[in-house]
Amino acid sequence: MVAERSDHEALGGLEYFVLVSDHVFSPTELRHAFYGNEVIFDAASPCLTLTWKSATQLEIGCEGGTVDVGHINLQKSQSGDIVVSYKNIATK
């Protein structure tokens, strides 16, 4: 799932997170997931798309543009059995 998070206190703007789980998070679970291993990608870009290439291969892309390294806060290539690839997104 892609989740949007605003940091109003620090005025840091919007961040977009990609999280992997076997279910859709409740609001409480989502708040806890931001600090856990479920987050596989975090960037300051709203263009994120998710495409499952197979049951164990997830592609994270940017529709209509690109995401450069300066906008990426976290980027994983794997989460458990899931291999993550990137399209139109720089790799750190």
Describe this protein's structure.
This protein has 92 residues and is mostly beta strands. It has one domain. Helix content is 8%, strand content 47%. It has one helix spanning 27-33; strands at 2-7, 13-19, 39-43, 48-54, 57-62, 72-75, 78-79, 82-87. The strands form two sheets. A four-stranded antiparallel β-sheet has the order 1-2-3-6, with no helix packed on it. Strands 4-5-8-7 form a four-stranded mixed β-sheet, with no helix packed on it. A hairpin with a 5-residue loop joins strand 1 (2-7) and strand 2 (13-19). The two termini are 21 Å apart. The model has no long low-confidence stretch (mean pLDDT 89).
User: Approximately what portion of the residues adopt beta-strand conformation?
Assistant: over 45%
- Tell me the helix content: under 10%
Overall form:
globular
As an assembly, this protein is single chain
Uncertain regions spanning at least 5 consecutive residues: none
Give the number of DSSP strands.
8
Radius of gyration: 13 Å
- Please give the count of helices: 1
Order of helices and strands: EEHEEEEEE
Q: Please give the order of strands in the largest beta sheet.
A: 1-2-3-6
Structural class: mainly beta
Topology:
Layout lengths: L1 E6 L5 E7 L7 H7 L5 E5 L4 E7 L2 E6 L9 E4 L2 E2 L2 E6 L5
Parallel strand pairs: 5-8
Antiparallel strand pairs: 1-2, 2-3, 3-6, 4-5, 7-8
